[in-house]
Design a protein that fits this description.
The protein is of the alpha+beta class.
Length: about 170
């Protein structure tokens, strides 16, 4: 019996994101000095080691951020896994989207549990005076996966609405 397409995309993608995130964060901790940029592509892309105790954009819950955010991520991972379990076996795209988001969430959770300093961020993108927030591989997985998931769910909802109208 062949593996379901959703499993063929979900598990390798989630594992890849966690592994790539762990490796790149370990390298950043080894070779970068906090808040001292290393230019990769001029000032467009830099590697700048920072620690984020909050969520995206540094939003936090004060002294309880580490615990609260860890619990929120565990709950989110349970919801994502439940979505994966209920996905059609042939739904490779949904498996991929859920793998990206889950791998990224797990990568940042492991980082948060590993150190009270917060999540390691190091990819720093700037366009002239505009500064994109500093992020990591896990953040990229969550962001790309969330956009893909939104598109897939929107398409699914659009298809169901069209079917009901007929």
């Amino acid at each position: 019996m062949p593996f379901p397409k959703k499993a063929i995309t979900f598990w390798p993608i989630a594992a890849f994101v966690v592994a790539a995130d762990w490796i790149t964060k370990s390298l950043a901790l080894e070779y970068l000095i906090p808040h001292l940029p290393r230019h990769l592509a001029g000032t467009l892309v830099q590697l700048t080691l920072t620690f984020n105790r909050g969520t995206a954009f540094g939003i936090g819950a004060g002294p309880w951020s580490r615990l609260v955010l860890s619990i929120v991520v565990v709950v989110a991972l349970i919801v994502l896994y439940n979505m994966y379990r209920h996905a059609a076996p042939s739904d490779a795209w949904l498996g991929a989207a859920l793998g990206l988001v889950s791998g990224g969430a797990l990568g940042n959770l492991l980082d948060r549990l590993r150190s009270a300093r917060g999540v390691v961020d190091f990819i720093d993108v700037r366009f002239g005076a505009w500064h994109f927030w500093t992020f990591n591989v896990a953040d990229a997985g969550v962001s790309v996966g969330a956009v893909l998931l939104a598109i897939l769910l929107w398409q699914r909802d659009k298809t169901k609405s069209t079917e009901r109208a007929q």
